[in-house]
Amino acid sequence: MRDIQDLTVLILPGLGGSGAGHWQTAWEKAFPSFRRVQQANWDQPVYAEWSARLTQAVAQSTRPIVLAAHSLGTSLTMRWAFDQPVLAQKVAGAFLVAPTDRDRLEGAPDSPTRGFGRMILARLPFPSAVVASRNDDRVSFKRAGAFATAWGSTLIDAGNQGHMGTAAQLGVWPLGLVWFGQFVASLDVA
Q1: What local confidence, expressed as pLDDT, does residue 32 receive?
Q2: Rounded to an integer, what distance in angstroms lies between the CA atom of residue 90 and that of residue 104?
Q3: Per-residue pLDDT tens over the stretch 101-112
Q4: Into how many domains does the chain fold?
Q5: What is the domain-level CATH number for residue 77?
Q6: How confident is residue 1, by pLDDT bands cut at 50, 70 and 90?
Q7: DSSP codes joined into one string, the chain
Q8: Which residues constitute the domain of residue 175?
């Protein structure tokens, strides 16, 4: 069983930065060792900038890393893992909540995101779990399942929880913590 204190947990919010009512913020308050990867601009995300901040956080870590990503944070994780294969070796696993279907949104004129690209449907270089809701307006459950299969991820069915962000009012999200704990315990980290 993996002790969470032996790991660096990096929180990767999506668009807007996971405000006060978001489960990621609640987890940071409950677990002071969890560190948010801060972005300069949460509302106009540019992949090159977000990726640089993640690269810096991973490079600075002296322990194996677990990424806890939500929404656009899952897209960041996905693309970064293939763009930074050497640093990705430091990642023990990724807990990917509510992946956003970039293929639907990339290039849309009203999208504030730039440079994240389309979905990469290839096996991630580290273990992962995809937590997907059956009524998420940013990705269908079937499509999230296709991502999980392509990435070699365990798929966790969250039921009807919407996009599992601030609007879902999950608070500390106890069931999410159970799933996260089970995922961390499953990791084989030296």
Answers
A1: 87
A2: 31
A3: 888 766 666 778
A4: 1
A5: 3.40.50.1820
A6: very low
A7: ---GGGSEEEEE--TT---TTSHHHHHHHH-TT-EE---S-SSS-BHHHHHHHHHHHHHH-SS-EEEEEETHHHHHHHHHHHH-HHHHTTEEEEEEES---HHHHTT-TT---BS--SPP-S--SS-EEEEE-TT-TTS-HHHHHHHHHHHTPEEEE--S-TT-SGGGT-TT-HHHHHHHHHHHHH----
A8: 4-186
